[in-house]
Write a structure and sequence with these properties.
286 residues, 41% helix, single chain, Rossmann fold, 2 domains, four-stranded parallel sheet
């Protein structure tokens, strides 16, 4: 970054609302936030918000991506990193490792996150009770998707809450379980529901029920896996089976997030989605 560019970026940041905006969007990650949500969280009128967003875009610290009628805004991590490097590259007599916390943070800024983005894919995992398989899948995709995917889960006949052993397993493996809950898939139908790009069924069967209409855009797939509620055996055996279920889901989701979405058409994506759920990845024994 040149001195002129750094001066312009610092001038744009020299305002309280813009600093709050950068902090908010850094926390939101690569998927960003819609302008309306930013305005609501910061308590800023839309007209004023637009002025501040444009100022930060002009100096390369933000980028906007249209999604339907909304525009998602995210921090340009390369721009932010360049500014931090400019401010610290000559510090401490040419020994930047002595600058402490700010250099500790720089490796966490991912240049790949600044690539031209498409809005994050919305993915819904469904099963019967929404208490184990789909809960695990939601947690895994939100962690492995790294902001490129927004995961939800739901059930045809949801339980009151996720299974305790599933929540304990996810927490032990470093997943954030605070937002996980069992809910009906009816919440994801209708005009006010979030638009789904993918709907993936995890049940062996839906016990005679067919999935509701999640919109014409949604690509559906089936990754059938056995229900942990039907696992039998000793506590140690049940824990082993739960470990196998988690590992099987993780393998599938790792393949899913690495698909070349930009080069695959709808039919090809549908075929790849079904392949991921096929016998090539093995089945957990019930």
């Amino acid at each position: 970054m040149e001195t002129r560019e750094a001066a312009e970026a610092l001038a744009a940041l020299a305002q309280e609302t813009r600093l709050d905006m950068i902090r908010l969007l850094v926390g939101a990650g690569a998927s960003g936030l819609p302008a309306g949500e930013i305005a609501a969280r910061l308590g800023v009128p839309p007209s004023t918000l637009s002025f501040h967003l444009n100022a930060l875009e002009r100096v390369g610290l933000l980028r906007g991506t249209r999604q339907g009628r909304s525009i998602l805004y995210a921090v340009r991590m390369v721009g932010l990193r360049s500014l931090l490097v400019f401010l610290t590259e000559s510090c401490c007599g040419g020994r930047p490792e002595l600058c402490g916390d700010i250099w500790h943070l720089l490796p966490e800024v991912d240049d790949a996150a600044d690539a031209p983005i498409t809005p994050g894919f919305n993915v819904l995992f469904v099963c019967t009770a929404n208490s184990a398989r789909s809960i695990m899948a939601e947690a895994l995709l939100n962690k492995l998707g790294r902001g490129r995917f927004n995961a939800w889960s739901a059930g045809s006949r949801p339980a009151r809450a996720p299974r305790p052993e599933v929540m304990a397993k996810l927490a032990a493996l470093g997943h954030d379980t605070g937002a996980l809950s069992s809910k009906s898939w009816d919440q994801f139908t209708g005009p006010s529901a979030p638009r789904m790009d993918f709907v993936i069924a995890l049940c062996d069967t839906l016990e005679g029920q067919s999935c509701p209409d999640f919109g014409a855009k949604a690509i559906t797939g089936a990754w059938p896996l056995p229900d942990p509620a039907k696992f039998s055996g000793s506590p140690a055996e049940r824990q082993t089976l739960l470990n196998e279920l988690y590992a099987s889901l993780r393998r599938r989701i790792e393949i899913f997030v690495s698909l070349p979405f930009a080069t695959l058409d709808r039919m090809a994506l549908k075929a790849r989605l079904d392949e991921i759920g096929g016998p090539m990845l093995g089945r957990v024994r019930a």
